[in-house]
Amino acid sequence: MELILDIFNYSLAIILICISAVWIFLIKSLIDSVRFTPYLDKFEKKDHVNPKVSIILPARNEEKFIRKCLDSLINQDYINYEIIVIDDSSEDQTGKIILEYAKTNSKIIAVTAQIKPDGWMGKNWACMEGYKKATGELLLFTDADTIHSQKVISLAVSHLLTFNLDALSAIPKLLAIDFWTRITLPMISIFLHSRFSAIRVNDPSKKTAYFFGSFFIIKQKTYQAVGTHEGVKYEIIEDSALGKKVKESGYKMKMVRADDLIEAVWARDKSTLWHALKRLMVPLYLQSKKIAIGSFFAVFFLLFVPFVLLAYSSLFIFQTTSFSIIFGVSIIASMLIYVGAIIEVKKLLHLRLSDALFAPIGGLVVVLGFLSGLLKVNSKVMWRGRKYHMKDHAQNSINI
């Protein structure tokens, strides 16, 4: 019996060593992301014209956020732009607020989206409705819960034209309003800044590509060439799918950091956080059930198992050598998780150091959210107050 227990424990120790190795890779990727991701405002500018920019701003039930967003867009130092604000069937005061701003500022064009047709996601349809009113050579897509610095459009246009880009997306400072988002976001962001890093997006030899929905600017002719939002009309993560189409079509795109220039809310409360975690699994599952399930278990082992095995081994640490080995390796694996969380909160997310201390809980929330997404992918998915039945719609927003 003792031999069987030792074999079991040594197997767990091997798993922990593998987990630690993966975390060393992830931490290196995080450090590279901090060091090598270019910034929106750090480049040698070239002289250029000022093409008209059409800002396309979809809004659904955004009465708590849209005023700050519009105020930040109205006060831009760029001279040639329009703001197309689309009320996407809001059930609160969003539509009224949009009309109030349109009456007092000539740059704002208020649009009331028509009823969403079957086969469209809500935001995708609202973006398309806004695009129909756009007259600019450049299209800037943003979200109603995003706040922009006064010079961000000037910088984005200058960056796009200086580097002769077809599209440019900026990584904002992600605002975590509630406790659950603050402790969960670092654990999600670790994978974003490694597997889906800007370094990979900016590398033409890599397939990785996506846009941050809170801020991406694209030439109108490029947007048309890749099929507009109609080409991604039933993608639940439409910004990622659109960015993927741009890169796959051979257009030149770039991702930059702009966390000192743009702020965006990632989740408003624990309910929206939960739905956001669930919807991250949907595109993966609809592409490949096996890989989606495998990815879930990978996240489970990476984010949560080391803490479980640390507690398990601490109870019997003095009984056998195998328990002592598990205890030592689980401490190393757990500390590596904390190192990753600390890098995220201090260097990339600008959260409080104390938020990293809740890494085990944050990891568990991520695991449970992903599990819920897997279990309910064949039922209706809730997003922005609408329910979508996804099982009959292929998703192409995430590269496997």
Can you walk through the features of this model?
With 400 residues, the protein is α/β, with parallel strands linked by helices. It has two domains: 2-33 and 273-389, no CATH class; 53-172 and 212-266, Spore Coat Polysaccharide Biosynthesis Protein SpsA, Chain A (Alpha-Beta Complex). It contains 15 helices and twelve strands. Strands 3-2-1-4-8-6-9 form a seven-stranded mixed β-sheet, sandwiched between helices. A three-stranded mixed β-sheet has the order 5-10-7. α3 (94-104) links the parallel β2 (81-87) and β3 (108-112). α6 packs across α15 (359-375). The protein is elongated. The two termini are 42 Å apart. The mean pLDDT is 92.
SSE diagram, text form:
Elements: H1 2-36, E1 53-59, H2 66-74, E2 81-87, H3 94-104, E3 108-112, H4 122-131, E4 138-142, E5 146-148, H5 152-162, E6 167-171, E7 173-176, H6 179-192, H7 198-201, E8 215-219, H8 220-225, H9 238-248, E9 253-257, E10 262-267, H10 270-287, H11 289-303, H12 305-315, H13 321-348, H14 353-356, H15 359-375, E11 380-383, E12 386-389
